[in-house]
Every structure is written in C-alpha cells, then in structure tokens.
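Hey, I'm writing a tutorial for new members on how sequence and structure tokens pair up, and I'd like a real worked example in the thread rather than a made-up one. If someone can provide the structure for the chain below, I'll link this post from the tutorial.
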Amino acid sequence: MKKRVLVADDEARIRKVMTMLLRDEGYEVLAVENGKEAVKALDAFRPDLILLDQQMPDMTGMEALQQIKTAHPGATVLMVTAYGSVTLAVQAIKNGAYDFIEKPFDNDKFLLTVERALNFQEIRNELNHLKEQQNDRFSFGQIIGNSAKLQQVMAQVRKVADTNVTVLVLGESGVGKELVSRAIHHYSSRKEKPLVTVNCGAIPLTLIESELFGHEKGAFTDAKEMRTGTFEKADGGTLFLDEIGELPPDAQVKLLRVLEEKSVTHIGGKKEIPVDVRIIAATNRNLEERVRQGTFRLDLLYRLNIFTINIPSLRERREDIPMLVDHFIAKYNKILNLSVKNISQEAIDQLCSYDWPGNIRDLENAIQSAMILSENGTILADHLPMRTKSYPRIESLLADNDGDSNKIKEANEHTEKELIVATLKRCDNNRTLAAKALHISRKTLFNKMKKYQLG
C-alpha cells in the first residue's frame, strides 16, 4: 500500500511543490490549505504522516498539532516553519511533532526528512504490534481442563477462529467467556491486529454509544474533544462485546446498523467511517427470553447468533477441578509469596462435590483463601470456605432464571469476605499489608471491611 501524506499549507505554490515531490516518490497525497481542514481530513484520509505549516489562517500549525495529538496520540507530524523560527520548531517537538522542516527547503533534504519520519512511524507501529502480541499472548494452556465438554469447546474455537463470522459466547458468570474469546482472536488471521474489549454492562447508559462509536467535539455537554470509538480502535482486528445482553435499546439499533453497513458515524457527526472488525459477543443472559420481554432486538440476535459457543459451567465438568486447583496453587504461590505444595484428598473431594455458583472465578477465590489459611504447605478441608461443606445444589437455585441469580452474588461476596478475614488474620490485622497481599488499595480494603462489618 502507498504511504499516505497529508499536507497543510496556506501557500498554494508550496502545496503544489510538496505534492509534486511526494507523488513523484510514490506517496498518496492529500493537500489542504489550513489547519482546520487538516484536522477534519484525519479520519477519512488516515494519513501515515502529516505536514503542518506553522503560519496558517483560522488555525495555526501549533493549534492543529495539539488537536491532532489529542485525538490521535500516535500520529506522526512534521512541522514546516519559516527560516529562523527555531524556537517555534523546538516547541512543536515538545508538543509531539517528530521533526521540523525549514522554508525554503532543499528538495532532497525535504524528501529525506519525510522518509525518516515514515520509517519512524513504521518501526513504532511494529513495536506496538509486538507489545500487543506480548500482552495478549495466549495458548489453550490458559484454559485448564481435559473434560470432554471443555475439549468440545476447544474444537469449536479451532474451527471458527480463522473465519470472519460473528461469534456468540454463552455461559454463566465466571466460566471463562473472555478467555475463550481471546483464544478465538489469537488463533485467527487477525491476531496481529488489536483485540479491544468492551464490557457493555459496566459503562453508564449515557456513555455507551460514545464508547462504541465515538463522538465529535461539542456533540454533548462533556464532549470537549473528539473521541475515537472502540470500533475504530479495533479496525482490522476483533471487538469483544462482553455482557451484550446489557446493551441499551438505542445502542442496539446503532450496533445493528454498523454490523450491516460496516461503517460508524460519530455522535454529532455526519461522516461515515469504514471499519473492518470481527465481532465476538458474550453474555450470561438468555437472549431469546430478552427478545420475548422486548429488551433485546430479534434482528440483532440473528446477526450475533451466526456461530454459538456454549461454555459449560464448572459443575458440568467437575473432573477438571483438580487440574484447576493445581493451576491456582502455582499461581498464588508466586503472587502471595507462599509455599503451598499439597491439598488433601478430603479437600479435593469437598471441592468436587460443591456446585460453584460463581464457577471458575469462585473456585479461584476459594483456593486463594485456603492457601492463606493453610499451614505446613498443605490445604486441608478445614481451610476451605464454610459454604463448600454444605450448600444446596445450584441447579435448583437457577431453575427459574437465566443464570444470573442473586445467589451467585451472595456466594461471591461470602467468598470475598472470608478471604479478607483470612488475609487480615495472616497479616496480624495490619491493613496496609493486607491490602498489598490482596492487590487492592488500602481505601478499597477499608470500604470492603465497612461493607462486611469487619473490625
């Protein structure tokens, strides 16, 4: 692909010379006559390099630079300054410009500076991709278990990963829906591109559309700057929409349009921005029931439900529990600086007979708590949370809902409370040390102690 260069200069002769030189070198060029037009052209043209003249009417090059770096921090900018304006050039570099070119310029030096800037941009992009790969590095080893039901899920992941179809991942809270979604991305042809995650249930209703689709400056009261939405950030890659069942109706309509037209429009904007995004959606809700209730669109469900993966609950694959326990013991020995080596057979039997309403996340919390209480490097049945000793089977608790029972919340809160109590005991009630061991702030620990009436 040709490298794209955006030129902004109010002198027609300079624009013409720059454009001619750049096109002769094989670059795709868009020339505009002021800073405002340069800022407006960014999303549609998506330049690899921007050349800004310092002195322009309506908006100076420095003002345009500030707006560009706010909206697109990774943009590479060359400032074009009048001869002798070294102070302005230095200030521009401090504000984020890569380098500057003095007018009148030597043609060969001009092209060399442009080439150097584009090489810098390419190297930075490669480094960012490597960093993303490192951060998102994934293998099936992170999905623990050998059960037939889990292996069936992995087989589905392998089959669907290298297609571009939309995937709907279903399962109760805590079963590992995000891990499966990351596996799909990792084994797809899009793995070099970003995997962007949006929790649709964690964003305020007033901000969800801005988060997904972006907004223009002034589109609403707090829109002080233009914002790029997650669809644009995930361009070329994968967008993981977690808790899709919580998406409000207005956002559902816009999401459906984006899926059909493969373009987004900023809130307060008119320009359609093309996006190439693979969608993976996840929910612990019964979307068909939501459709019957009128809270979820049937046409959106059809668009999302092209390929569905149902992740089994932990009680449906109890044979994986011992392997998961070994994994969590190894994990928290490092994190908590412990040396737990064993778990008694009685404790394992107790874990395997419990229904785990919060699934894998619930088990992880229980093992962490038990490790803190354990002595002599062995987890005993007495170290496990009290609720694992006698608790009604979860099937009856979830029979009349779509898997998001308040019982799950209660069970998770009970686990959290037990973990805090155990950690405080281990740290001799030193709240600073306990907060550090729990990987939360001291203020958060204080608030949770207040919530659970501890001390």
